[in-house]
Design a protein that fits this description.
heterodimer, A: alpha/beta, TIM Barrel, Helicase, Ruva Protein, domain 3, 2 domains, two-stranded parallel ribbon, 14 helices, 10 strands, about 15% strand, B: Rossmann fold, Dihydrodipicolinate Reductase, domain 2, five-stranded mixed beta sheet, 10 helices
């Protein structure tokens, strides 16, 4: 059977959908279930990665350390992974995750800024961690640029490089072209991370696999920023039908969705108008709830905010600009 | 007699410093020191009639007549340079994250002890945001200060990129040590949009939001102070209360001395460094 590696992001990207309000205790319980389903690796913590708990992105219910402790003590076969966005998280934050046996760190940068990951990838490799480069907002750069930046991460020592569709803005051909080019440029595995803002998460993930990606992400019920990630149960079912061995028990995964994830969701993980606006405009997925809040506070349409953020070519992490844009839009409304 | 100054490190920061010092004519810039004979910054200095050396710190020490050195090298180099400058009785303005001496934000704490002979300029994000935190904290105690600095990719050189952890750590330390907050956190974002965006900073403070009116006037007062040495510094969004926090945003337009105007992040730290050096000159001229 054909092999594919899957990384579950329910307990990291999924935190965006619930404003990072899962407690360490709850996270530990879910992690245990995921472990039992046969998933090989789970990414955990604040939606913006280690050190992400902030007024800018939202304070998490528990401390990074508490999440690591709760999850690491229940895992038997599954490995723990953390996300580090340089500029938000630091090596000091990573050291805390290492105390609790983190196996992998994914170092995430905007697709054109791979050179800020050098420090962190080199540190991870020197200390025996698996290091995965994560090129966010890959839709914003040309195919050649994505390949060039992936090569930088390989040179720093990364074990795998991801093409990441943080905005859920790519159509299958965008994915294929980028994955093929990266595959051509580097000699390490290539991964793909999708968002479902255009309803293409499963389809794009399959397109990535067909173009040569061998590591892909998913989350139970698709829990994640914007319209969510690739829904893992659906992906596993599709991969089974295509003859891939994922090592994951589909029924167990479905049960986690129904019994564990459904009850913690604040709203259905659907392609709402705002999520669609994000995918359409190419704005960062986690802007969704922040834009809604700002729209309400300043009396403007959240879709207008999101489209303007796309037009301004904002990158991941610029949640503060949402307020600024909302204020400007409300001023314009008043002068009309 | 004007005080004699030298610049160590002829990169973007060194060149911008050079242009500012020459423009203001308050200090006598006598040397630009580097270690690479092909450095563009050294060539530019020669064109402006400034003496150059490729012996780095040794070249400066050999010159024997220098009062003030701007160190725009890197943290590791400054660790080596600092004791040498001290021994030679030279006042050091440190633009690296080494932080051998106390942090200085001119609008807040130019009144450091008179025996201080090495001053650290924190980071561009620190220069832009610490004054705002300080202004809030002098009205009502700031329990927690968090800042987000967004720079255009073009204006962030390899020094910033390879040491991004040092940037966030130094900035958050300064929010506490100079700004007065009980806890601090700093986030930096690089944005590659073209044309490049201006340096923008968002400041969030947890404090008594009922004092918002006093906070606004205190912040306005400090912005006026910063403008004295960084004319392009301005409030983008005046402080307002959002739940239990105060939010404010500042933008920094550069003077366009060396890099274009979007590089306000470069401008604010070089301008602050020049302000510190001029203050030192005001205090000590005639003494030597």
């Amino acid at each position: 059977m054909k092999q594919i590696r899957i990384i579950d992001v329910t307990l990291r990207d999924g935190m965006h959908a619930i404003s990072h309000q899962l407690s360490a205790h709850e996270m530990g319980k879910i992690a245990q279930k995921l472990d039992e389903s046969g998933i090989g690796m789970i990414e955990i913590g604040h939606g913006d990665g280690i050190g992400g708990s902030s007024l800018q992105y939202g304070l998490a219910k528990s401390l990074d350390r508490e999440y690591f402790e709760a999850v690491s003590t229940v895992l038997k076969n599954c490995k723990m992974d953390v996300l580090l966005i340089p500029g938000i998280g630091t090596i000091e934050d990573l050291k805390v995750a290492m105390e609790y046996g983190a196996h992998t760190v994914r170092v995430a940068t905007h697709v054109t800024e791979a050179d800020v990951s050098e420090q962190h990838i080199m540190f991870a490799k020197k200390n025996g961690l698996e290091a995965i480069g994560f090129l966010m907002m890959s839709h914003m750069a040309s195919v050649e640029k994505v390949a060039e930046q992936a090569k930088l991460m390989e040179n720093y020592g990364a074990d795998t490089v991801y093409v990441t569709d943080s905005a859920g803005a790519m159509v299958p051909n965008d994915v294929k072209m980028r994955i093929s080019a990266v595959k051509e440029a580097i000699n390490i595995p290539v991964g793909f991370h999708a968002h479902n803002n255009l309803g293409l998460a499963v389809g794009n993930t399959i397109a990535a696999i067909e173009a040569g990606a061998t590591v892909v992400d998913g989350s139970v019920r698709g829990l994640g920023a914007g319209a969510g990630n690739t829904q893992l149960e659906a992906l596993v079912a599709v991969l089974n039908k295509m003859g891939y061995d994922t090592g994951i028990d589909l029924y167990k995964l479905m049960d986690i969705g129904q019994n564990v994830i459904d009850p913690i969701m604040c709203r259905p993980q659907i392609i709402s108008n705002d999520a669609l606006a994000i995918g359409y405009a190419g704005a960062y997925g986690s802007f969704l709830l922040h834009a809604r809040r700002a729209a309400e506070k300043f009396g403007v349409d959240s879709r207008d905010i999101l489209l303007e953020l796309g037009r301004l070519k904002t990158v991941g992490g610029q949640e503060d600009l949402i307020i600024d844009v909302a204020i400007e839009l409300s001023k314009k409304q008043k002068t009309k | 007699m004007k005080m004699k100054a030298a610049i160590l490190g002829p990169g973007n920061i060194g060149i911008d410093l050079m242009i500012k010092i020459l423009k203001r004519k308050r200090l006598d810039l006598v040397m630009m020191a580097g270690i690479d004979p092909n450095s563009y910054g050294l060539k530019l200095a020669q064109e402006k009639g400034i003496k150059t050396t490729i012996e780095g710190i040794d070249g400066i020490l050999k010159a024997g007549n220098i009062d003030i050195v701007f160190d725009a090298t890197g943290a590791k180099a400054h660790q080596v340079n600092a004791p040498l400058l001290k021994k030679a009785g030279i006042f050091a303005v440190d633009l690296t994250p080494a932080a051998v001496g106390p942090y200085c934000i001119p609008a807040v704490n130019l009144d450091y002890d008179s025996d201080v002979d090495n001053v650290n300029m924190v980071t561009c994000g620190g220069q832009a945001t610490v004054p705002i935190v300080y202004a809030m904290n002098r009205v009502t105690p700031v329990e927690y200060a968090e800042i987000v600095a967004t720079l255009s990719s073009k204006s962030a050189g390899p020094g910033t990129r390879q040491n991004i952890d040092e940037f966030t750590e130094t900035t958050s330390n300064a929010l506490v040590k100079v700004g007065g907050a009980k806890k601090g956190k700093a986030i930096i974002i690089l944005n590659p949009a073209d044309p490049p965006l201006m340096m923008r900073n968002t400041i969030y403070c947890k404090c008594d939001v009922s004092r918002i009116e006093e906070i606004v006037s205190s912040v306005n007062a400090i912005v006026t102070e910063v403008k004295k040495y960084v004319p392009g510094y301005h409030l983008k969004v005046a402080p307002y209360a959002d739940g239990e926090r105060i939010v404010a945003m500042v933008e920094v337009e550069g003077a366009g001395d060396y890099l274009p105007k979007y590089s306000g992040n470069l401008d604010i730290i070089t301008s602050a460094a020049v302000a510190v050096a001029e203050h030192y000159a005001d205090q000590n001229e005639g003494a030597n």
